Amino acid sequence: MSVQQGSEKPASQTKKFGKSEREVPHHTQRAKKFYPAEDENKPKKVRKSIKPARPRSSLVPGTVLILLASRFRGKRVILLKHLPQGVLLVTGPYKANGVPLRRVNARYVIATSVKVDLKGIDEKVVEKVSEEGYFTREKKNDKVGEEAFFAQGEKPEKKKVTSARANDQKAVDKALLTNIKKEPMLLDYLRSSFSLRKGDRPHEMKW
Fold it and tell me: Which residue, 56, 133, 176, 185, shows the most beta carbons closer than 10 Å to its own?
């Protein structure tokens, strides 16, 4: 019996305050007077579900795009593949305008009406480039010492491109350049950079 009584919740009492009545909770049910000095970190409840990115209808593989951000802004590139989370895999090609294989956010891109034939491109190379760990930077083990920090007049070391990346770039560019050279003026179009001048109205332009 004692176990059952202990498991039951203590009942609240009804007290009269003048003409009105009010239920007074048991002292065990009342709010605590002590609060911790530091707030407890609680994980934030995320109610939004991650939805797959829907690419624009104009972003079709083989479309010539104009980059609006990054150090290659204004350059024209060719769309190769859609990657998850609204990222695009593009290339210049590198021999045409110096833009290598890279990932680009779909928001900072203008799709043009020009299309390039993607026949002849090795799909295995494209799948290899589109993997998650392909564009990650290698961690440097060499720490900068005092002598290197105070050295003046010495040129910094240039970034060396790995041979595997260079071979992948050549494999993609070789097939693209053969298809580009078949179309007149297309190579010059890709080499030229896009820019706006005073009086230009981009909303009235036909891309």
Answer: 176
Q: Is residue 102 exposed (0-12), middle (13-18) or buried (19+ Cβ within 10 Å)? A: middle
Rounded Cα distance between 106 and 63, Å, is 13
Q: Residues, the chain, total?
A: 207
Q: How far apart are CA 105 and CA 86, in angstroms?
A: 6
Secondary structure (3-state) at 66: strand
Contact 74, 67 (CB under 8 A): yes
Tens digits of residue pLDDT in 145-158: 666 656 655 665 66
What CA–CA distances, in Å, run from 185 to 7, 68, 149? Answer: 86, 23, 50
What is this structure's pTM?
0.67
